Structures are given as C-alpha cells and as structure tokens.
Fold this sequence. Notes:
The structure holds 2 protein chains of 2 kinds. By secondary structure, chain A is of the alpha/beta class. Chain A contains 10 helices and 20 strands. Chain A has one domain (74-383). In chain A, the strands form 2 sheets. In chain A, strands 2-1-5-8-10-12-14-16-18-20 form a 10-stranded mixed sheet. In chain A, strands 3, 4, 6, 7, 9, 11, 13, 15, 17 and 19 form a 10-stranded mixed sheet that branches. In chain A, a hairpin with a 2-residue loop joins strand 1 and strand 2 (102-104). The longest helix of chain A is centred in the first third of the chain and has 18 residues, at 8-25. Chain A starts with 7 loop residues before the first helix and ends in a 7-residue tail after the last helix. The model of chain A is unreliable at 1-5 (pLDDT under 50). By secondary structure, chain B is of the alpha/beta class. Chain B contains 10 helices and 12 strands. Chain B has helices at 40-48, 72-77, 95-109, 117-130, 135-138, 148-162, 178-191, 205-210, 230-239, 242-254; strands spanning 2-11, 14-24, 29-33, 53-62, 65-66, 80-83, 90-94, 141-142, 166-170, 197-201, 215-220, 223-228. The interface between A and B is medium-sized, with 24 and 30 residues. The complex binds adenosine-5'-triphosphate and magnesium ion (MG). The site of magnesium ion has 5 residues of chain B, from helix 1.
Amino acid sequence: xxxxxxVTLYDEVxxxxxxxxxxxxxxxxxxxxxxxxxxxxxFRQSGFPTIRNEDWKYTNxxxxxxxxxxxxxxxxxxxxxxxxxxxxxxxxxxxxxxxNGVWDKTLGSTLPQGxxxxxxxxxxxxxxxxxxxxxxHNDRFFTALNTALFADGLFIRVKAAALPDKPLHIIHAYxxxxxxxxxxxxxxxVNERAELSIVESIVSEKGQTHIWVNSLTEIVMHxxxxxxxxxxxxxxxxxxxxxxTTVRQKKQSLYNNYTFTLPGADLVRNDLQARxxxxxxxxxxxxxxxxxxxxxxxxxxxxxxxxxxxxSNELYKGVLLEQSTGVFNGKVYVHxxxxxxxxxxxxxxxxxxxxxxxxxxxxxxxxxxxxKCSHGSTVGQFSEEALFYLRARGIxxxxxxxxxxxxxxxxxxxxxxxxxxxxxxxxxxxxxxPVTQ
Amino acid sequence: MLIIKNLHAEVEEKQILKGINLEVKAxxxxxxxxxxxxxxxxxxxxxxxxxxxxxxxxxVKFHGKDLLDMSPEDRAREGLFxxxxxxxxxxxxxxxxxxxxxxxxxxxxxxxxxxxxxEFLKLSREKQKLVEFDAQLVNRSLNEGFSGxxxxxxxxxxxxxxxxxxxxLDETDSGLDIDALRIVSQxxxxxxxxxxxxxxxxxxxxxxxxxxxxxxxxxxxxxxxxSGTKDxxxxxxxxxxxxxxxxxxxxxxxx
Lengths: 437, 255
Ligand SMILES: Nc1ncnc2c1ncn2[C@@H]1O[C@H](COP(=O)(O)OP(=O)(O)OP(=O)(O)O)[C@@H](O)[C@H]1O
Ligand SMILES: [Mg+2]
C-alpha cells in the first residue's frame, strides 16, 4: 500500500472518517453503519492500490495521489452552462442532472413513466436498498472507500414490465472551487420484463482544480429485463475518474454496455463487472477509448459466467494519440456450472502517438467443458497502404488519418442504437482528430 | 502535360526503373505493355508518389511543375489519378464519404467551394450511370467485400468523379468480364477529351481495340525498349516479347 506519509489523501480519509461518518449516517440504519465501518476498516488496511497489485499493475496512481482533496461536497451555484454542454442535439429523451453526485431536481425535464427515481440519500430507507446494497467483506481500495464515505447518488427502480417511451439521459456534472474527491453511489434496479435505455454523460469545468470522482454503480437486472447503458466520459484533464460498475443479471436478462472515453480526464479507470447469476442471459460490452495528451485510460472488465446457457460478447477498441497510455484487461470467468457458455472477447488498438503505449491483456479462466469461447487482442499502426490510397485521391494526410481513425472506431460507434447519440459521439471524436503525429 | 526524363527509381535498394523517357501530351492515349515484373506498376507508383520508391535520377514535369517534389495528395490535386492494379479494402470508410472528402479537398486546392450535397448527389448519379456502377456499392465501405471486377469498376467510377487531367490505368482490364470490359472502355472513351490524357497499362490487345491508343510502348527491365502505334500491340499479340528481349539484350551488349 501507499504509506500514509506519501499519500496526503490517505491521511485525509483516515483522519476525516469519524466526522464524515457522523455527517452522513445520522439517518442511517445500524446495518448500513456497520457496513460502512467495515469498509472503512478495509480501506484503512488496503490504502490506495499500487502497481504491486495485479489489477493496478499498469496504472500508477502515485502522481495523482500527491494532490490534496477535500472530501466534503461544497455548496456551489448550479453549473447550468456546464450541464448544457453535455446535452445531445436532437436526442429525444428525458434528462436529469446530478451535480457532484447530488440530483438537482430544478434542472430536469419530466420523468419517464414507470421509472422511479430517488436521491440515494433518501433511498436508504427503502427496503430495496437494504436488499441490493452490496456488502462485500473483502472490498478494498476505491470500492471500500466509496462504501465508507458515499453521501448521495441516484436510485432508479424501473417497475416490472415498464417500457418507458424514451431513453433517460443522466448528466453528471462535477464542479468545485478547490480540489475535491466525490464518491457518488448509485443503485439501479430493472425489474422483470422492464426495458430502459440510459445514457450517462460525465462533464466538468476545465481548470486547475482537481476533481477526483470515485463512483460506484450497482445494477440489478431481473428476469427478462433489458437495459442499454451508454456512458460518455468527456471530462477535462483536471478530472480523475474511477468508475466501478457491477451488473447482476438474472434469468434471460439482457444488458448492453457502451463505454466511450474521450481525450480529457488525465486518469480514467473503469471497472465493469457483469455477473451472470442465472441462466440464459445475454451481455454485450462495447468500448471505445480515444486517449490523448498524457492521459491514462484503463478499462478492466469482468464477465463472470456462473450459470449455463449465457451469452457474452465484448468488443473494446482503443486509439492512443500523443503520449497517452491505454490499459485493457478483459477477464472472462466460466464456472464449472456454466455449461453451454458462449463468451467472446476482442480488443483492438491503434497506437498512433510515438510515445503512446497500450497494455492489453485478455484473461480467460474456463472451468466448464462444453463452452464456446474466443478472445483476441491486436495492436497496430495506420496501414500505410490505406493511407497511400486515400492520399492518392487528393485527401491530405491529416484528413486521411482522421478517416482511418473514424473507420477504426466505426465498429463500436455503429453499435449505438440512438442516431443522435452516435452523431454526438462522432462529433466528439472529430474534435480530437485530425492528428498531427 | 507529362514529361518524364531519364527516370531511375529503386525499391529496397533494388534498381527497378532504369532510365524511363516519356512524353504525354493533352488529348493523347498511351498504352504501356511489357512482361510481368518489368516495372510498369512501379512507374505508376513512382508517378503517384508511393513512398517506398526512391527516385535516384531523372525528373518528371507535370503541367510544368516538378511532380517528384509533391506529396501524393498534391499530385492528385494537380490532376493525376492512378487506378490501382490491386485496389485495397478500407472497412469503415464509406465510399461516398471518401469521395466527398476527396472531391472537397481537390476543389479546395483549386480555390473552389465544396459541392452542395445536392450537386454532389447529382454528379455521383451521373457518373454511376456512365460506368454502370451499382448504386448499392457506392454506399458500402470502400471496396470491402467487393468482387475483383467491382473493385476495378470502382476505380473507374472514382476516375469519373474526380475528372483528372492525367489518368494512369494499371491493368484495369484484368479481372473484368467481357461486358464490364466494354462498359469500362466506353466510360473511358466518354471521358476522353482534348484536355486530358491517359496512360493505359495492359497485357491485352483486346482493351486497346476498345480504347484505341495513339502510342504503344513496351517496358522491359526498367526501360522503354520499343515505342510505336497501335499496330505494335497487334504485333506483340502475335509474336510475344522474346524478340524484343533479344533486341534489348543485343542493344545492351553493343553499348
Ligand atoms: N517492395 C518491393 N520490394 C522488392 N521488389 C519489389 C517491390 N515492389 C516491386 N518489386 C519488384 O519490382 C519489379 C517490378 O515490379 P512491377 O510491379 O512494377 O512489375 P509490373 O511490370 O507491373 O508487373 P505485372 O505485369 O506483373 O503487374 C518486380 O521484379 C518486383 O518484384
Ligand atoms: Mg503491375
């Protein structure tokens, strides 16, 4: 672990826990208080991860942990303009906004039928909260920290058989006057036969103030439920994003995740875990990371096949510009019980910056014998042949490269089901290319 | 329009072009024939600016400008077009988008605004018709999954869209069925004018029956060893290349 003397943030957390715990938990059940205490104890022992931890081998946090952060969310005016930057043109949807993890009801539109939304601070009394809020005795690092310290977030319950007419756009805006670490915590329950599409946008103001977002989302997909879950991460360089999502899938549920990481936030770590707890589930994980500058973008995914006849498919593509670093770790675990599993995984990378790097590691652990599994990982540069072909038609080098980057990303962007969102993402990609190197 | 003088080029330190001289004037069609591996595609590549080739001697003037000094894109913008012998597939780049970008960049170079969407569509329809190019293919990814013949036709479709002053067709006829050969040739004939020129690389006299050349050259071992009129193509069809190889050898010995 990072010793307390090296890591200011660690000291802050340890010293501040009692005070923070008292603030947050005055209205909490004794169970939750016990869980928090345990999580805090776990974090106290684990500290922040170092490169000696297998899961953080390529993601060195030292330079980010040197800064000081306040742990209390300040009271600031609502950043309306910032929130507007996250809006998606021509996207017919319901919109809500969270500022530093707290739902601001003054900014939203009407809400979808059959979908119940609550601030997490209020949801703590809901029986579903006690049922689905995960207590993991082995939690360490960021998830333990989140459990110990979270103050608010968004609780969503999609009622059984609800079919909202439009997607829900959740804008997460982060803003602070001084360095800040926030711990949003979300629980989303999609009940039987319900269907929803959620698009999340993460934005923040450009500036010198560092904002560390340590977010944790727990999703439960009940029988025959369907969720399309898109995340657009386009926060600026002063933001550090650590994002943990766990999806628990029940029988015949379908979960589609689309994660887009764009140049900006100097640290992005996404942990996405699909736990297939019952049979005949379907899971698609699509990711596109376009990293620039000195950005470090790390995607760790886990598809945990626990039961038979489940299907999972994963496609992550990365474009590494300038001096950026990419990490992809895709773990597929097939339990002995999980016969007739279909599990596919692919990670392709285009390393463009002369100083850019990627570490790509598929990890397959298969304990069942009747399965179909495949994985592949590639790292490449621009095809000289393709570049020459385009240039020979009068297309300048920069534009030719832009075309090839778009073409590379296309396999993922074309999977988006909302045309407006696809256009939006292509526009965001376009802002960062043509490239100069 | 194009003047090639004593052009020498090598690839991976291997001398491929060994002193090419050729002049192409506006309105002319030149055919280049020659045995496999003699350097025909290499000549086309050097003219188009493929970076793997090093020019070691000689010069090339295109519309009075130093061609060898230009980037591949600038050569295209100046009006040079190469229909590739083996067009590559670029998945994810749509044919339409690619052509729009190319046309816009060429027009910008010439100080023209990009075509309006409507105008572009009209032009595209017109040219599709000219070369009987399937509209479905226009909307697909560039050459992805195209048959060999479809790829060749796409080259001619692009040629029609970009309206170059000098088009080099590298074995565009290989892989075309009889109907396609006729369609492509008719397309080229319609595009022929007193202001543009064609260099047609081919192995077959048949194409030259459709597109009648003003000159026929034989490239052998990196040099043009014989030039003549369309009758030379007929003679080659009849006699093959051996007599020319022989002549070239004798000539080399006598020097
Ligand atoms: N990258 C390369 N490295 C080495 N040799 C090469 C390379 N490219 C071409 N050559 C050689 O250059 C010579 C000329 O090739 P080129 O493709 O120009 O022939 P060609 O006249 O077009 O033949 P064909 O009629 O078969 O198309 C050949 O001997 C070929 O092997
Ligand atoms: Mg050739």
